[in-house]
Amino acid sequence: MSNKVNLNTLKKWFQTGSKPTQEHFWAWMDSYWHKDESIPQESVDGLQESLNKKADRESLNNHVQDPEAHKNLFDTKADKNVFDQHLSDPGAHKSLFKNKVDISHLEDTNAHEYLFDQKVDKEPGKGLSSNDFTDDLKGKLISIQMPEDLQIFDSLEDAENTLGPYKFFLYSEKNSNGVVSPGNSVIGVTGKGNNK
User: Fold this and answer.
1) Residue 135's pLDDT band (boundaries 50, 70, 90)?
2) Looking at the domain assignment, is residue 157 inside a domain?
3) In DSSP terms, which residues pair with 171 in a beta bridge?
4) pLDDT score of 194
5) What is the pLDDT of residues 148-160, one digit of tens each?
6) Strand residue runs (E) in the chain
7) How many domains in the chain?
8) Which of 31, 35, 79, 134 is the most buried (most CB within 10 A)?
9) What pLDDT does 20 receive?
């Protein structure tokens, strides 16, 4: 009989009414660790796997005390004091800022005030705010009276259909210099005659 017996077999040996032998008792006791015995590490389930995940104490202490242990990482870092001085130095990036524009001009609502002071306010209903149509011109326009029998046509064909044969005539007078100017010319239409 082996030194170790599984639990179900041990239970059968010691059921009510059974008569365990000396060998049964010894096998039962040999199947468990006695408190006076040391349990080997390899007999503890998962212990070796857990130990393999731990760092060797001596190696870890040497690593912690080694100033060059993470040199490749520290070499890429800036000294905090130097970096703080760089941040507080107004001239640190002077070469970059000298080509930049101060945007305060964009936020200044009075930046182009002198231009707005010269502008002309738009008046509703007018293309321009100045009145260039003089009272003298207005009076001449009012004095022009159109003939009461004036007829307006959409086309020459409509005029001919209404007036019958017609012709144009131009009457011109020369001014004091002997020159015929548009101001001295009159264009007329008459329905009498023909269109030649």
Assistant:
1) confident
2) yes
3) 186
4) 47
5) 767 777 777 777 7
6) 167-174, 180-190
7) 1
8) 31
9) 93
